Amino acid sequence: MTVVEKDFRLVPLLKQELENAGLNHVTILTMDALKLDIRTIVKDQKLVVIGNLPYNISSQILFKLVEDSQYIEKAFLMFQKELATRILAAPGGKDYSRLTAVVKYAADINFVADVGPHSFFPKPAVDSTILRFDFFEEKAFGPEQEKLLFNVIKAAFSKRRKSLKNSMEGGEFKFEKPFIINALESAGIDPQRRAETLSVEEFKSLARAIWEST
Question: Which domains, and CATH codes, for the chain?
Fold first, then answer.
């Protein structure tokens, strides 16, 4: 078992708690989880990740787990309830976001439990939710196509109040509007639609269309 804890002040307490529980085969890494090369702790089988994530960087950690998902079997993670709602959201609503689409590409997500402030000391001012992520054994795309998919999703949500033909124009990818419209139509997607209306499968179709056109 490997534990990652950035705050060095908590490490002695953590060691004592592990000792009291009779857990003697635990490696503690005192570092930022966002800087961890997950390959260094993978042994004979994929990892099971369990975490009460720092709420200010929980989205960043989840993006990192998706990028490293070939090394992970499943994860049980606690989020601020509002973020968990976004992660579980279906297309078509305001809660559906870039994070939602990226994570649903990589994993099957299920609600586990809500956790109220009374379960913590000191009590936080927010409610929390535990989610389970079962990462897919096989992915639809290879590494380069997957990178393109994530960039397509990012571009689509960059100006989420605009139609796709406008939100994806320019930006860091320097797509021109005729190219975007052609790719959307090739993928069977109305260029007037907005990012939050697209399913993960539609984002994948769009990424394939762009891949084949470049």
Answer: 32-135 (3.40.50.150), 143-213 (1.10.8.100)
